[in-house]
């Protein structure tokens, strides 16, 4: 009798201990499930919708593509819509050199910009990591400080600096370094300046995070033991520390952002080149219905209020994407 009572008591105590553990386990799973549900609803679902639209054909309608999503026909209607999808749009991208050259140019500019950002950002990150501990928070704040200002305003400020009558040319002319204004705006030089300035914090912060964790007393001890500063393998202590920044190298982030976000290139590039590219795209039959309503409407004939706004500082007679 006593044994049965003891067993019942032990089982009750075990159940009482298991209940909080089960609640904690459920809470932990819920914390993980919520972000995945958010990504599913607001990332994957829109992604598949856009992918489906890319397999559709343009049409002068609303929405401006066919077939549109319509569930009124049931399963058979959905299957019929899927059969109408094709990869003609992707094939069209490979046939016109306009899009191939645009993508290759973006990749080249992104690669050069990433290299320049690394050359500028690595010394900054290394200097921050070797600075006194009391000074590091201030330096870190200075790197993050540009994020407090709008990205658009920061890039447009470079237009006022780089234009022929801008601050840079005025300074160089007043000091006698140059005799006539330099043409920097609307060139690749201006593009690289804008990109490096815009994405420099994204290079500095990951490198600083890796270099700051490095134990530099080991480097000093190695030097005291006659270790060479440049080992035959070419992997300096700073390189080893940079490899610990994570699975994703710091340089991939600015490069990836440059490929998908062309803000500095659009605002600082040559307005004539952009206008010619826009006009060529508008003349494409596949895009005419989307851009202007088809036919003559591709140039905005029947939609006078639909136009491409000009970028401030652009030459007269040229339009620009904003």
What descriptive keywords fit this protein?
322 residues, mainly alpha
Please characterize this protein's 3D structure:
This protein has 322 residues and is mainly α. The chain is 65% helix and 1% strand. The chain is built from 14 helices and 2 strands. The protein has helices at residues 2-54, 74-84, 88-95, 97-130, 136-144, 151-162, 167-174, 188-212, 216-224, 237-243, 252-260, 263-268, 271-282, 285-291, and strands at residues 57-58, 65-66. Strands 1-2 form a two-stranded antiparallel ribbon. Strand 1 and strand 2 (65-66) form a beta hairpin. It is flat and about 75 Å long. It starts with a helix and ends in a 31-residue tail after the last helix. The relative contact order is 0.09. Residues 285-322 have low confidence and may be disordered.
Brief synopsis:
By secondary structure, this protein is mainly alpha-helical.
List the helices and strands and how they pair.
Blueprint: H1 2-54, E1 57-58, E2 65-66, H2 74-84, H3 88-95, H4 97-130, H5 136-144, H6 151-162, H7 167-174, H8 188-212, H9 216-224, H10 237-243, H11 252-260, H12 263-268, H13 271-282, H14 285-291
Antiparallel strand pairs: 1-2
Helix pairs in contact: 4-8, 4-11, 8-11
């Amino acid at each position: 009798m006593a044994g049965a009572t003891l067993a019942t008591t032990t089982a009750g105590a075990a159940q009482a201990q298991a209940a909080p553990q089960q609640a904690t386990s459920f809470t932990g799973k819920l914390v993980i499930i919520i972000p995945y549900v958010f990504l599913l609803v607001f990332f994957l679902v829109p992604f598949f919708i856009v992918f489906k639209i890319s397999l559709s054909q343009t049409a002068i309608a609303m929405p401006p593509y066919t077939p549109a999503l319509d569930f009124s026909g049931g399963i058979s209607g959905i299957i019929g819509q899927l059969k109408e999808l094709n990869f003609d749009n992707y094939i069209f991208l490979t046939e016109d050199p306009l899009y191939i050259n645009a993508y290759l140019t973006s990749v080249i500019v992104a690669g050069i910009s990433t290299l320049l950002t690394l050359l500028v950002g690595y010394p900054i990150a290394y200097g921050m990591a070797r600075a006194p501990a009391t000074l590091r928070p201030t330096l870190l704040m200075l790197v993050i400080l540009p994020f407090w200002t709008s990205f658009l305003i920061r890039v447009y400020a470079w237009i006022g600096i780089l234009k022929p009558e801008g601050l840079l040319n005025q300074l160089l002319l007043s000091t006698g370094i140059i005799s006539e204004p330099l043409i920097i705006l609307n060139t690749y030089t201006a593009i690289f300046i804008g990109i490096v300035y815009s994405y420099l914090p994204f290079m500095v912060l990951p490198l600083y995070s890796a270099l700051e964790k490095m134990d530099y007393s080991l480097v000093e001890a190695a030097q005291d033991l006659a270790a060479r500063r440049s080992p035959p393998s070419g992997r300096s202590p700073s390189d080893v520390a940079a490899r610990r920044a994570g699975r994703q190298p710091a340089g991939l982030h600015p490069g990836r952002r440059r490929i998908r976000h062309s803000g500095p290139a659009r605002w600082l590039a040559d307005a004539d080149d952009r206008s010619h590219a826009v006009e060529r795209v508008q003349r494409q039959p596949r895009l005419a219905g989307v851009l202007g309503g088809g036919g003559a409407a591709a140039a905005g004939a029947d939609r006078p209020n639909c136009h491409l706004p000009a970028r401030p500082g652009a030459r007269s007679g040229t339009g620009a994407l904003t």
